[in-house]
């Protein structure tokens, strides 16, 4: 089977970026089209355009991959609407335009001869894969949510602290972000760490009745400052932060704050962890604020 032309690959990348809203939908589309699941989600932590580009380039390196490219192209051709109903207005029109443009190019290059009857099996497999992914995620979030709400009333605060570490580790696993659980250096205790969008992050997590003071967050910031300059910190406090403490760490900071409200939104499925992190990072970069309230990222 022939390698797909460059302009077709570029059009497919544009369709991936503009025809999908949720990454889970894009993943299930790839799998239903015949992409091996592990390969389909390999670059899921990247932006959709980058994810598509890296995947299609990788597929072009083998004969089996080229066959998969053609299957994905066929799946795009068989679409009669955008896979994500969440796209609306201008974004929906842009997505439809990209899909239409890809189909016209397919016919122009005679990659698929004429219009064929829509293969309902593609849509069926897509819906089945998407439903399976959503169901598994919902079940896991329900389990974590139960642990979280029990921890709110627990008298054993040490156990609640361990539960918080477990919840955080599980949320990162659900979002397919590699997470290193708590560890010690010769002089420091680190509650967790991960990499995201080119930066390394250290985590400090507290679940106490009182809110952390400026000295505690400052001590954590000094831990972060002993690492590479590209290292940032995330301080998690289930019971939130006092306004004066937040103000003390605004402007030119490398610390982001996450509170219990953020965790509830994650556990209730109102926002995904990668979206939350991206919004908090963007807000800090644009406004110099270490804490991004839910009124901003849930707009």
UniProtKB/TrEMBL annotation:
This is Restriction endonuclease. GO terms for molecular function: DNA binding; endonuclease activity. It holds the Pfam family Mrr_cat. The keyword Nuclease applies. Residues 160-267 form the Restriction endonuclease type IV Mrr domain. Coiled coil: none annotated. GO terms for biological process: DNA restriction-modification system. Keywords: Endonuclease, Hydrolase, Nuclease.
């Amino acid at each position: 089977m022939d390698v797909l032309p460059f302009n077709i690959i570029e059009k497919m990348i544009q369709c991936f970026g503009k025809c999908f809203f949720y990454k889970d939908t894009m993943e299930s589309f790839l799998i239903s089209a015949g992409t091996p699941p592990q390969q389909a989600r390999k670059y899921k932590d990247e932006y959709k355009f980058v994810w598509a580009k890296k995947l299609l380039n990788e597929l072009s390196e083998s004969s089996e991959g080229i066959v998969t490219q053609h299957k994905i192209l066929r799946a795009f051709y068989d679409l009669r609407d955008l896979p994500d109903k969440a796209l609306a207005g201008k974004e929906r029109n842009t997505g439809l335009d990209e899909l239409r443009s890809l189909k016209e190019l397919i016919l122009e290059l005679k990659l698929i001869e004429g219009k064929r009857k829509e293969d309902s099996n593609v849509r069926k497999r897509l819906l089945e894969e998407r439903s399976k992914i959503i169901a598994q995620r919902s079940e896991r979030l329900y389990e974590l949510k139960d642990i979280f709400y029990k921890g709110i009333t627990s008298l054993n605060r040490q156990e609640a602290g361990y539960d918080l570490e477990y919840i955080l580790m599980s949320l990162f696993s659900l979002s397919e972000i590699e997470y290193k659980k708590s560890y010690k250096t010769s002089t420091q205790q680190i509650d967790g760490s991960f990499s995201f969008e080119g930066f390394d992050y250290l985590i400090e997590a507290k679940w106490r009745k009182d809110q952390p003071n400026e000295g505690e967050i400052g001590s954590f910031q000094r831990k972060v400052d002993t690492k590479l300059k590209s290292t940032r910190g995330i301080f998690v406090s289930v019971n939130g932060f006092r306004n004066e403490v937040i103000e003390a760490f605004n402007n030119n900071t490398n610390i982001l704050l996450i509170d219990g409200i953020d965790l509830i939104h994650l556990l209730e499925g109102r926002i995904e962890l990668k979206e939350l992190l991206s919004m908090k990072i963007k807000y800090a970069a644009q406004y110099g604020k270490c804490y991004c309230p839910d009124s901003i990222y849930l707009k």
